[in-house]
TrEMBL record:
The lineage of its organism: Bacteria, Bacillati, Actinomycetota, Actinomycetes, Propionibacteriales. It is a multi-pass membrane protein. It holds the Pfam family MFS_1. One of its GO terms (molecular function) is transmembrane transporter activity. It is found in: Cell membrane. GO terms for cellular component: plasma membrane. This is MFS transporter. Keywords: Cell membrane, Membrane, Transmembrane, Transmembrane helix, Transport.
Length: 408
């Protein structure tokens, strides 16, 4: 390290933020607000899918593209965004990304057709990528390691609330208006959250700019894949998230048919079960501290395996319990896996986090769309078996990671 770099490091690398110290709460509020805005925008059309099918004459699989387009483009751009944050600062990327995504979102209600809505959602996915790409790395960089599991859990919990409100707000608005106004009101909420982030986001204190190059960044990503534990966690993200988004994408279609006959706006109530994910995310950090990552993530996977088969039932109470149990288990798996990747990455942490999230959102896009085809051609029962299969594969990988970690 040069003398100039040493002097810079001595200035920008103070002690990490700790609970009870100045800046800790402000940092968490800013990151949670960014998560609320970004996850709201990511899934703002999911609860509208049955309505889009009726209003625009789209199949369930085509309507799901309004979700898959956003998450798919996000998945492709999340790694470049995380790399750029290593050079220009994660805080700048987070603020700029959240603001740009909301700006695009405010134009979506004017889309003249489903095709244009899908295109707009793809652009929105491009714009929003900077928040999930860098937020976890920002926390890992700025928060004292002792408080990182709790901070990460709160951030993920905020994401679940953002995702929940991104479904509930437009679904609730369907009681009073059409999908365009429902989407517009939801984007105004995302705008309010973004304003909070812009005004209170603290400056990075521990950031050191990194020289970036295409070859070195590609090598950094490959190095993470060479680590069998990190590679397994990347695949866990792909399969588990794909299963999760498939369940919530198409459950609404199931509940609007016999024997349930939910209204279009009534389907939005099912997303209240997201609160189980919020609780799971917030508590996971404490559980990990007590029981360790391996036992905690295995417990989450088992809960997912128990809950998912229950949604095949024709009894509403059984379906709701199954969705709640699966949601709780999934968010345990995601919270542990995302934090574990950061802990395993001794260097090039942004690339590790970006690769994990790229796999996470690729799973949402690819598996989610394939699930739509399964549902369209074979129905709910076959879709449930398909989802159980993808989550079983994810669980096998979880067991593999736990065993390999025990030998290190």
């Amino acid at each position: 390290m040069s003398t100039a770099e040493e002097e810079s490091a001595s200035v920008v690398l103070p002690e990490g933020l700790r609970r009870g110290r100045p800046g800790y709460v402000t940092a968490l509020v800013a990151l949670v607000a960014a998560g609320l805005a970004s996850f709201n925008t990511m899934y703002c059309t999911q609860a509208l899918m049955p309505t889009l099918t009726d209003a625009l004459g789209a199949s369930a699989a085509d309507a799901s593209l309004t979700v898959s387009a956003a998450t798919g483009v996000l998945a492709l751009t999340i790694l470049p965004a995380s790399v750029l944050s290593e050079r220009f600062g994660r805080g700048r990327v987070i603020v700029g990304s959240a603001a740009a995504a909301v700006a695009v979102g405010l134009l979506l209600p004017f889309a003249p057709s489903l095709s244009w809505l899908v295109v707009g959602r793809g652009v929105q996915g491009l714009m929003v990528a900077g928040v999930p790409a860098t937020a976890m790395a920002w926390l890992s960089q700025e928060i004292d390691p002792h408080y990182l599991p709790q901070a990460m859990g709160l951030y993920v919990a905020g994401n679940t609330v953002g995702g929940l409100l991104g479904r509930l707000i437009p679904a609730g608005m369907l009681n009073f208006t059409g999908w365009r106004w429902a989407l517009a009101v939801d984007m105004l909420f995302a705008l309010a959250c973004t304003v909070v982030t812009v005004f209170i986001m603290p400056k990075e204190r521990r950031f050191v700019p990194k020289a970036i190059g295409l070859r070195t960044e590609m090598q950094a990503v490959l190095n993470h894949w060479y680590d069998s534990r990190k590679a397994s966690l990347f695949l866990v993200a792909f399969l588990a998230m794909g299963t999760f988004v498939s369940l919530y994408d198409f459950l609404g279609y199931r509940l609007t048919t016999a024997p349930f006959h939910f209204s279009q706006s009534g389907v939005g109530g099912i997303f209240l079960l997201y609160l189980f994910g919020t609780v799971a995310s917030a508590r996971t950090g404490t559980v990990v501290t007590r029981w360790g990552r391996s036992r905690t993530i295995l417990g989450g996977a088992v809960l997912g395996l128990v809950g998912l088969p229950m949604v095949i039932s024709t009894r509403l109470s059984v379906i709701l319990i199954g969705v709640a149990v699966f949601t709780y288990g999934f968010f345990i798996v995601h919270s542990v896996a995302s934090g574990w990747v950061g802990a395993l990455a001794n260097k090039d942490r942004a690339e590790a986090s970006g690769t994990y999230l790229a796999c996470y959102y690729l799973g949402s896009s690819i598996v989610g769309y394939l699930s739509g085809l399964v549902f369209h051609h074979f129905g709910w029962r076959t879709l449930t078996l398909w989802m159980e299969g993808t989550f079983i594969l994810s669980t096998i990988l979880v067991v593999t990671v736990a065993r390999r970690s025990a030998t290190h």
